[in-house]
Amino acid sequence: MTSPEWERRPWLAAYGKDIEARLPEPRYASLAEMAHTACTRYADRTAFTCVVPNGMNGSLTYAQVNEMSDAFAAFLRIDCDLDPGDRVAVQLPNTLPYPVVALGVLKAGCVLVNTNPLYTRSEMRHQFTDAEVKVLVIVDIFANKLADVIPDSGIERVVLAGVPEFFPRVPEFIVRTVQKVWTRALPPIPDLPIPVTRIRAALAAGRAHKADAQQWWQGLERRNLALLQYTGGTTGVAKGAMLSHGAMLANIDQVLAMGRAYMDRETCVLTALPLYHIFAFTANFLAFFDIGARNVMIPSPRPVQNLQRAIENYPITWITGVNTLFNALTNEEWFTAHPPRHLVAAIAGGTALHAAVARRWQEVTGKPVAEGYGLTECAPVVSFNPMGAESRPGSIGVPVPGTDIALVDDDDAPVDPGQPGELIVKGPQNMDGYWRRPEDTDSTLRNGWVYTGDVAVMDEEGYLHIVDRKKDLVLVSGFNVYPNEIEDALAKLDAVLEAAVVGIPDEKTGEAVRAYVVPNPDHAGDPLTRDAVIKHCRTLLASYKVPRSVIIRDELPKSPIGKILRKDLKAEVRREFETA
Amino acid sequence: MITPLETTLLGIMMMVIMLGMGASMTWRDFMLAFRKPRGIIVGLTSQFLVMPALGFALAMALGLPPAMAVGLILIACMPGGTTSNIFAYFSKGVLALSIMMTTASTMVAVVMVPILLTFYSGLAGIGAEFVIPAGNVAQVLVVLLVPTALGMVLRKVNPNIGATVELIGSLMGVVVILFLIVTWVPRNYQMLLDTGAPFYVATIGIGLAGMLFGYWFARTLRQDPNRARTISLETGIQNGPLAVLVITLSFTGEMQQDVLFIPVLYSLFIVLSSTLVTIWYRRNATREELARDAAKVRN
């Protein structure tokens, strides 16, 4: 598979003194054991604080999380009569019940199926039947979807949790009253053919058994399945990536290996990305839990103003985000006037971080954004920029310890150094395959390598640069145009807030570049025009890369974590040219 | 006649409202508002230059007797009312701007209201017996700024308590108007029936004229429609209960009752007219949102 060039592992030199090239010996047999150990060791510390937009908040200590997740495990195993390995779907925003329920599922020896709360009814039905979910924990503001989802889904019990759940009594009452009366966010619970329990009642039932949760997780091994993490909505139906306890624990160690030198007891991480997403799940939730940090959770990060009170009121030292979040924050006056004082590091993943955004972030906060890269199939972290090193804009860093990578061409042959090729990954964090989809597994997981579908180049020092998604390439007169490069150029124009680039059919050149741009509302100069965009691009890009078509929009389609969805724009283009 | 007990109650309620207003913001919000002061300056201008002039002009044009004229001018000179924040919220306006305008105008009022009152009372040729002592107004305002500061401290110390106090404060804004209606209207219903149209024109007109002007002025100075609607509500909605409090501290007996007439009627009608305007604004805001969405689909 790999050629000698790749076996040389040129990136090891970039680790410097902060990063151990060898992963530590496995410390735990399961995530449940990791959680139990952390909760015992850091018992009195605050583990989670959930902050709603008006500043009201609630917190749980490590000891509380331990006791409550034990109770939830007992509820699942005894009251719901689940067996080890049974799937439990968790459809919660970043709220205090999330860690309690997620760790409860893992301690019960069951498999966690993270589910986006914003999913439509049909997406929910697909995921729940595909995973054969037995118990669903869902946030009460979306309970109205249940009537269409539950019948014939095989789900045997529903647990409801609220956004202000486990807040002090008065704030909980106020937030709930506001939801009920003011914003009308609380729908009535539909009549269902199965039992529906509120989370507090579920915990009370679990506690009543006075059972020792250890009995359910003691036998777990690293090879056992921990998560079914659904992904790949871009190509047809979502598939469940099977992530074992071992893969998750390895990725925690890999994240900590990269960042440990910059984390201490005072670490306080801002979690604005949703925890049901694998990036926040591994990095924000598990890795920081392992070291006893405090996690400040934002239930709904949009509008970005919702983060204001959290950033003002807590000594945030770490922020994880995606390009869109960093872009939005640096466009907020309250943020630029008072950037978080205690900030140690900001890390970006999920989607390419634009150079202009990274630069503005550093100007505003005085700290660089370290960009990383990962995918659900790798639990997810594959590479990161070493924090101590000089920041390299545009690079996704070097492979994390214990990870091998190679860049290959369409014939699976390793490309020459400096040439673009598909990034393939081998490491202890790799998934075991897609749940009950052998063909998909075979096409993505070959000889222990995960084929990422991303085209990358590696420089001499081992730093990786993602060129683009293999399937997002625009082919203009036979030249490869990578949308990221054009988007980066567009983001440099002050009048542009954000941009996305896709290909459109073109009679002469086969495909041509189309740019969707959103004007920056705070830009004081001339309004954004098509001509200004094209003129700007001419100064930065070769002529075949300059957009042929420019469309000015107020907003771009985005995923729940704020990734710009090129696939939606492509679908739009398809419709447009089919009808034309 | 409002009894001393009622005056005390009114004072306490005002303090709770101001405590809530203070708790709704942080020192940083406050500093921020003054970094980009255009909206606030626009608001303060319409609040303290235009509104008092409007009040004076209306009083003159309608030929109001001195007691009523004082009431109208006083209402016109008042800083923004805290209920404006609730209306700003419901009209999908810019809540932060509304809160900042209310706070800023309350602070500026300490200096401006006594000056404006003296100026316009003199201009209107109002007899000495009807003149509100400037010191009274300043005193009341300073007293009210103390709970505002306290509210800010509360928010800083404990965000949960702060946000709770904020909520109680805005509910109190509604309670205080109900309180005024309940304590004043039954005793004066005969007077309400006997009152001629000019008085109603004055009480309802001052609020509506303020809103109209605020919107036009803000749009002229290139504020976006959302901010303009917020400034409009902020300009039209004055702190009626504060005017009532000042009057009860300055006058007694029959005279108090007469001067109170317009401020109390104003407090009553402004709730009704702001509700209607808010519904209309909200509809506009929604339509603009939908238009933006549609623009996205059609490109």
UniProtKB/TrEMBL annotation, chain A:
CC per GO annotation: membrane
MF-aspect GO terms? long-chain fatty acid-CoA ligase activity
User: Which residues are in the AMP-dependent synthetase/ligase domain?
Assistant: 37-435
Q: In which pathway does it act?
A: Lipid metabolism; fatty acid beta-oxidation
Primary location recorded for the protein, binned into one broad class? membrane
Q: Give the subcellular location.
A: Membrane
Its top-level enzyme class, in one word, is ligase
Per UniProt, the keywords (alphabetical) are:
Ligase, Membrane
Record's bilayer topology term: Peripheral membrane protein
- The UniProt record lists the AMP-binding enzyme C-terminal domain at 485-563
The residues forming a coiled coil are none
Question: Record's superkingdom?
Answer: Bacteria
Keyword Ligase assigned? yes
SUPFAM superfamilies the UniProt entry points to: Acetyl-CoA synthetase-like
What InterPro entries does UniProt report for this protein, alphabetically? AMP-bd_C, AMP-bd_C_sf, AMP-binding_CS, AMP-dep_synth/lig_dom, ANL_N_sf, ATP-dep_AMP-bd_enzyme
- Give the E.C. number(s): 6.2.1.3
Name of the protein in question: Long-chain-fatty-acid--CoA ligase
Automatic annotation (TrEMBL), chain B:
InterPro entries according to UniProt: BilAc:Na_symport/Acr3, Bilac:Na_transpt, Na+/solute_symporter_sf
Localisation:
Membrane
Please name the Gene3D superfamilies in this protein's record: 1.20.1530.20
Segments traversing the membrane: 6-27, 39-61, 67-87, 94-117, 137-155, 167-185, 197-218, 230-253, 259-281
Keyword field contains Membrane: yes
PANTHER family named in the record: P3 PROTEIN-RELATED (PTHR10361:SF28), SODIUM-BILE ACID COTRANSPORTER (PTHR10361)
Q: What is this protein called?
A: Bile acid:sodium symporter
GO CC term (a single one): membrane
Q: Describe its membrane topology.
A: Multi-pass membrane protein
Answer whether the UniProt record assigns the keyword Protein transport to this protein: no
Q: Which UniProt keywords apply?
A: Membrane, Transmembrane, Transmembrane helix
This protein's species is Rhabdonatronobacter sediminivivens
